[in-house]
Design brief:
Elements lengths: L6 H4 L14 E8 L3 H13 L4 E4 L15 E2 L7 H8 L1 H25 L5 E10 L2 H16 L6 E5 L17 E3 L1 H7 L9 E10 L1 H16 L3 E4 L4 E6 L4 E5 L2 E10 L8 E4 L6 H4 L4 E12 L6 E5 L17 E10 L2 E15 L13 H14 L12 E9 L6 E4 L6 E5 L6 H15 L18
Parallel strand pairs: 1-2, 1-11, 2-8, 4-14, 5-6, 9-12, 11-19
Antiparallel strand pairs: 3-7, 4-7, 5-7, 9-10, 10-11, 13-16, 13-17, 14-15, 15-16, 18-19
Length: 461
Amino acid sequence: MFSNNSPWVEQLKNKFNTNPLEKNHKTDVLVIGAGISGITTAYYILKNTNLKVTLVEARTLASGATGHNAGQLVSYFEKQISNLAKEFGFEMAVSAQKDINSSWFLLEQIYQDTGITTNISISNGYAGIQTYEDLVTFLQNAQVYKKANLPHEKLSIADDCPYLEKIPQKFHNLFSIIKKKNLMEYLETNDTSYYAMITVKKGVMNSALFCEDLLTYIFKNFSNRFNYYDKTPVSEIKLLENNSLTIANNKEIYSDKIVLCTNGFEKIEIINKAGNDINTKFHHLVIGVVGYMAGYLEEDLRKPTAISYLPKKSSTGNDAFDKDPYFYFTRRDYEIKNKKFNLICIGGPEAVMDDSNNYKKEHPFPKEAQDSINNFLHKSYKYSPKGNINYKYIWHGLMGYTPNGIRLIGIEPLNKNLLYNLGCNGIGILPSIFGANKISKILSGEKFEKSIFDPSNFDKF
């Protein structure tokens, strides 16, 4: 079966005509990649500096992971904060969490400053927990949050939890007991194997439409300092001592700085004329993971939500279809021809690409992935349609995962003219916005303390 009809791409207004680069070009800052990372990076540089910015995209606006994701807004890491504290130290882990938390304010500020109207819903979200091991991990996270006086996930345990008495005394002030039926209502499930849950701030948004609306604002307000070229793939970057030369669409772009806002595994050759090799390291920074998602419409309108369902056994290896994946579920308002629905979106099945350059958006949607989603819905979602599910949307997207699960934000240590805001790690919307703002501050001359996002942390990979 083939299908890749993302609901986010369908909602695009297609305001911009194709505009490939057709002659040599010069700019202060070249931003590569027109997804949410690149669009917000361009926006913040224009807002916070007087620099000229050019944005180039190999395909079309938001055609990558930004238009082929689950549309969730979350401010946590792919790695647990308790593990980050062990790896980087308590202070750096807490500082990083505060950085990502700030993305909620940054997003709100973008809406206020620009007046864009992309629909967004923010509310409590939930994650269901089945195993004792996962429960202990979240209790360890809660310890870190409490010690740092940070807003944190509320942890609730069902009164019939079979491992309640195993929980160490040091964690007893970090959770509350609730009735099992209440826990199942929050998780919207009939599956009795969930014994605990976390409650945390989450949101839902069409990140592709957000990009289109923000780009419209940029053109209107910064046209004298901004250029945008799509259908303009970058093939080569030459980093010099004081500036850079980029080959894109067989044309030359001269810039003082370059910001890579891509998934990180494109066929871009980076030649550092002013220092050690970057190219080899860059192509080992990010691996490609294909996420498979499906969506259908409900006429019974319920409030927007985002819920995750942690598995009994985590998936490993290059093929997760026969394992027990981590599923995520979103529900949001959706309108088609002036009729209102709920759009139910489900994701979870993933597959690692051995060679990410082989990924094509036209790739078939594996039957195993759809069967996995069907089985999850029928087992876990209490409002799931009976029998066959009539999916209106079935899509997949290639996401960039860094080796340590942390976004890459900052200056390339081997050449200061190259900067990064990349590595979605499956939860890239809010981290992209934080990274974009930080990049603009770096370019304005602001200095920062050492961070877990620093490119220098990736030298060991």
